[in-house]
Amino acid sequence: MEKENKKYSVLLYYCYSKIENVEQFREEHHRLCLDLNLRGRIIVAQEGLNGTVSGLKEDCERYMNLIHTDPRFAKTDFKVDHVDRMAFQKLNVRVKAEIVHSSLAYLKPYERTGIHLEPQEFKQMKDQEDVVILDVRSNYEHTVGKFKNAVTLNIDNFREFPDKIKELEKYKDKKVLTYCTGGIKCEKASAFLLENGFENVYQLHGGIIKYGMEAGGEDFEGKCYVFDNRVVIDVNQVNPSIISKCYVCGTTSDRMVNCANAACNIHVPLCEECGWKMDGACSDACKAHPEKRPYNGSGYYAKQLNGYNPVKGLKRI
Ligand SMILES: [Zn+2]
Ligand SMILES: [Zn+2]
């Protein structure tokens, strides 16, 4: 089916912009999302808004228009993909200290951050001699896909990024081009590099997702990990390849799953055959574990909907 004919959309977006009364904003925003029948996760903080939501195409259109009419979020850049079903089961609108958990709450990207590169600009710059491409994402993300020649970091969470600054010292004289899934982590990562004396810091605006849509995804090897029920998505329409190996048997595979054992739940590639053989588990121990969930061939496990109430958290119903 042609993407444009699909009934649902998935939106990925963020905007660094000051929100004065976060609790009140959260309340109103939650209500708005309910009115539009959206599902997904939205984080509200004093520093801005970050979300990934799914809904009927026309509801998503209305949502984007409403966000854009608010002067605080007029510049929000939405990454839009078309899918054939809701990409989320629940709606969560939460207040947090930061819109992406980073341990860098004190940095204000709306005051200072790396230079934004549009996908075409990034594509032109990335192979130049004095350039280093830096992946600021975690292990489970860059294992399944990354830019050719990118520097990756051994981190399990973006919170650990600042710990790696010593490793990056050697690139101080280079032009550093950072990238992540949708661009948000780079806002803080690039600001942090600037603060640590790096002088030429750039970031891929809109992240891998936008690069795939606007620049054909050239030289992105593997697939892009996403945080909805699709698990990974294709990015590269020019020279695609597979870089990851099945966690169990080692054959080339980009089928990303969460381990069926809820107590483990690691994100790893698992080939189709091992998926069935291991019943979705990453090891024999996980296969035999009492918390192992039934495997349906997808490797995606929706959280329990028991007791879920979409209006929960609203002060006035
Ligand atoms: Zn395998
Ligand atoms: Zn496991």
Question: What this model shows, in words?
Answer:
The protein is of the alpha/beta class. It contains 9 helices and 15 strands. Bound molecules: zinc ion (2 copies).
Short descriptors:
single chain, four-stranded parallel beta sheet, binds zinc ion
Topology:
Layout: E1 8-16, H1 22-35, E2 39-45, E3 48-56, H2 57-69, E4 79-83, E5 91-95, E6 115-117, H3 119-125, E7 131-135, H4 139-142, E8 145-147, H5 165-168, E9 175-179, H6 184-195, E10 200-204, H7 207-215, E11 220-222, E12 224-225, E13 232-233, E14 256-258, E15 267-269, H8 272-277, H9 284-287
One zinc ion (ZN) binds next to α8.
Question: Short description, anyone?
Answer:
This protein has helices spanning 22-35, 57-69, 119-125, 139-142, 165-168, 184-195, 207-215, 272-277, 284-287; strands spanning 8-16, 39-45, 48-56, 79-83, 91-95, 115-117, 131-135, 145-147, 175-179, 200-204, 220-222, 224-225, 232-233, 256-258, 267-269. It is α/β, with parallel strands linked by helices and 317 residues long. The protein has a 5-stranded mixed sheet with strand order 4-1-3-2-5. Strands 6-10-9-7 form a 4-stranded parallel sheet. Strands 8-11 form a two-stranded antiparallel ribbon.
Radius of gyration: 20 Å
Give me the oligomer status: single chain
Element order: H for helix, E for strand: EHEEHEEEHEHEHEHEHEEEEEHH
DSSP strand tally: 15
Mean pLDDT: 93
Low-confidence stretches: none
- Main beta sheet, described? 5 strands, mixed
The global form is: globular
Helix fraction, binned, reads 10-25%
Distinct compounds present: zinc ion
Neighbour order of strands in the largest sheet: 4-1-3-2-5
Total helical segments: 9
Residues in β-strands, percent: 15-25%
Separation of termini?
40 Å
Structural class: alpha/beta
